[in-house]
Amino acid sequence: MGMSASQARFLCLTARLSDNEVTQQNLAYSKQRLSDNSQMINDQYLEALNKTKYQVLTGYNGTQANYADVSYNQMTGCNTVACGKQYIVKDNTGKILVSNAIAQAFAYGNGDFNKFLTKIDGGYTQSDLNINDVDTEEKIHDAWDKYLASVGQSIDDIDGKHILNFGYTAFDDTSYNGYATYNTAYTTGLNGEEIQLNKDADGYYKDNYLITAKKDAMTGIITCGFQVGDDFHELENVSYNTESKKFTFTDFTDEDGELTEYDALYADLTANSDAKVFESSKNHLEFNGTNYSSETGFTHDVTVTSTPLNFEGSTTAQRELYDYALAITEAYYNNQNAHSADNLTYDPQIVNHYKNIFNEMRTKSYTTVEEKYNTTNEKASTNLKDPQWFVKQLKAGNLVLSYYSTTEKKFIGTTLDDDESITEKEDKSEIAIAEQTYQKAMDNLENQDKQIDLRLNRLESEHNAIQTEIEAVQSVLKKNVENSFKTFNG
To answer: Domain map of the chain by residue range?
Structure first.
């Protein structure tokens, strides 16, 4: 019985020893895997330390340069790049990529830049006109002169007068209807001749004739009157003071009955071929429901003809001249300053920015993120702000970055790596995240390694104890065998 018990004990210890050794071997493999993981985590950390991102200079805070990540919104905004460059983005078919808001403004404008501007960010105008400036009319003339000359049209009418002579033309009251319309008014004179009428803020009026003084070379007699064609109409109730160089008119007296002198007098023919003298140069016509009556009491039939100034050019430059002339003319005839016209804002930098975009959309076509990527407005808005999405699309060739060359007057393609305004910098935020991830992973590995070492130490102690016990059992078994042989031999 003793030998059987020892044999059983020996087998049990041998099994435990085998399990111990297998467990130690598995833990050794686990330590190896921890070592491999540690190397992988270290490699990932080193890769993150080398991670960069594309940024563009946005300005300076004192002497310190400020940078922003390269995203669609950052690159295509107005004055969002410190170098002053204007960037646009095109897809791989050459269409300009614009936001949904700009696409809607373009559709509303239907080819009219002025209408397009009214829908941009609360509304803008390219009219830099100030109606209180003395050279306002000259500025409008000059703008139309440049456009008409660019398309080879005459700037004069059949009578040799400028077609925008503010004495007899007026633009249609409808703002931004796609073309300018100037109204020319005529009336019939005493002899049946057509007389062009002028118009100002108070309405139509007839030209009056400036009274002049003539001195007969033979007699030295001075007569006063006005010239109508080849005829000189003498006025007996008007005299001229050669010393004061002023006129007097007997119908005008002050409170004391004294004659009043005037620097200038004007006259208008009345229905009975007589003359009526005025201090003012304007004899306004008042509409009585059927026709117009003048201050002279004579009734006039007024005929108004409207002539449109349609765009007749073929180039972008001609169109820009036309749109600008139309914008300032509309502002003038609506009696509005540029900054208050229809509550629109005048900002030359923004206007020029969107002019370049508008021209590119008109000549090269356009698309939106929603259309190109078949996505929702919300997702498109997110993508336009996302630097990683934008850089990925550029690197994949799905989108192309271009900048406006002020010398070549067009957009020129560029790349992230070649553009002098874009720099590749350390991604400090990613590096910080990588450092945090690395430290956490390594702490976890170190903790696991310590736990494995503790288990290995315990298993080693257990292994030694089992081994010692096995040796003791083996000794007992050996003695039992020897005793058994002695007994049987005896």
So the answer is: 2-50+429-489, 52-124+347-426, 209-279
